């Protein structure tokens, strides 16, 4: 009869790692989010519904969700192009361009908002050329969209870039040798391969845009019914000590975000099958 001994490991076991995982998620995620629901439940259904369906707040929902969606779609298109250039071409300044992609990650959002407002204001370096055409960028939804594109572009680039680096060029060359045009190779081979990564980048950019505050308030103008976003309304209610109203609006944003991200995750699973 031979005795077998368990091999010692420097890594912690499943039990202790699962304990710390659940503890961390409970303290950081589950308990705070549960507090939102408990706080908003104290309002009652009638008061809750009257708060979250105010005309001013409904318009803020449209601005926040609509522009977040537009910005995420723009980032998917241009993020793919940026990732393609960084992976497939060698040129002078490539490392600098690659580093600039991460700038929105490191730059404080307030600094980004001030810089964008200065550029796109009616008398700014860029905005002054659009004013004679009757196009106002800063302090309008257009300015909000630009800010959301700015903070969301790295999510798409950094999600797509690794897959492009791992993709074998021989597959494209084989398709081209069989008579496929460049557009057909892109549509039939490259895009299907990158579709899960593009969808992941879209989801991350969209989720980041929904909760963005610092870079938006400086360029939006914060005008009710025109360019006011939901995070600003939540902050305003907190400053007015209306904690129940703030949590009610936060719950709507939370539930809507979960639903949208759930749909995106389902689409990702179908693509991977």
Verbal overview:
The protein has helices at 14-41, 45-52, 55-88, 94-101, 103-106, 109-120, 127-130, 141-166, 169-177, 182-210, 214-220, 230-239, 243-272. By secondary structure, the protein is mainly alpha-helical. The protein has a single domain (38-272), classed as Orthogonal Bundle (MetI-like fold), CATH 1.10.3720. α1 (14-41) crosses α13, α6 (109-120) runs parallel beside α11 (214-220) and α8 packs across α10 (182-210). The radius of gyration is 23 Å and the shape is globular.
Topology overview:
Layout: H1 14-41, H2 45-52, H3 55-88, H4 94-101, H5 103-106, H6 109-120, H7 127-130, H8 141-166, H9 169-177, H10 182-210, H11 214-220, H12 230-239, H13 243-272
- The protein's oligomeric status is single chain
Assign the CATH topology: MetI-like fold
**Biggest pleated-sheet summary:** none
Q: Per CATH, which architecture?
A: Orthogonal Bundle
What are the main properties of this structure?
273 residues, mainly alpha, MetI-like fold, 77% helix
Q: What would a concise description of this structure say?
A:
The protein has helices spanning 14-41, 45-52, 55-88, 94-101, 103-106, 109-120, 127-130, 141-166, 169-177, 182-210, 214-220, 230-239, 243-272. The chain has 273 residues and is an all-alpha fold. The chain has one domain (38-272): MetI-like fold, CATH 1.10.3720.
């Amino acid at each position: 009869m031979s005795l077998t001994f368990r091999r010692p490991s420097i890594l912690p076991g499943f039990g202790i790692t699962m304990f710390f995982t659940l503890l961390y998620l409970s303290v950081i995620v589950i308990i705070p989010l549960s507090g939102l629901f408990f706080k908003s439940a104290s309002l009652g259904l009638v008061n809750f519904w009257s708060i979250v369906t105010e005309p001013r707040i409904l318009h803020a929902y449209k601005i926040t969700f609509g522009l977040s969606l537009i910005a995420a779609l723009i980032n998917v298109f241009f993020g793919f192009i940026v990732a393609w250039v960084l992976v497939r071409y060698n040129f002078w300044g490539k490392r600098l361009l690659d580093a600039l992609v991460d700038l929105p990650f490191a730059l404080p959002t307030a600094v980004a908002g001030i810089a964008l407002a200065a550029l796109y204001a009616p008398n700014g370096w860029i905005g002054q050329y659009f004013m004679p055409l009757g196009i106002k960028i800063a302090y309008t939804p257009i300015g909000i969209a630009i800010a959301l594109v700015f903070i969301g572009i790295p999510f798409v680039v950094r999600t797509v870039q690794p897959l492009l680096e791992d993709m074998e060029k021989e597959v494209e060359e084989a398709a081209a040798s069989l008579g496929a045009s460049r557009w057909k190779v892109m549509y039939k081979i490259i895009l299907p391969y990158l579709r899960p990564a593009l969808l992941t980048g879209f989801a991350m950019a969209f989720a980041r845009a929904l909760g963005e505050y610092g870079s938006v308030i400086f360029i939006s103008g914060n005008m009710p019914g025109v360019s006011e976003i939901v995070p600003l309304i939540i902050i305003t209610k907190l400053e007015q000590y209306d904690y129940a109203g703030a949590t009610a609006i936060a719950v709507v944003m939370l539930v809507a975000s979960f639903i949208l991200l759930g749909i995106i995750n389902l689409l990702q699973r179908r693509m991977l099958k």
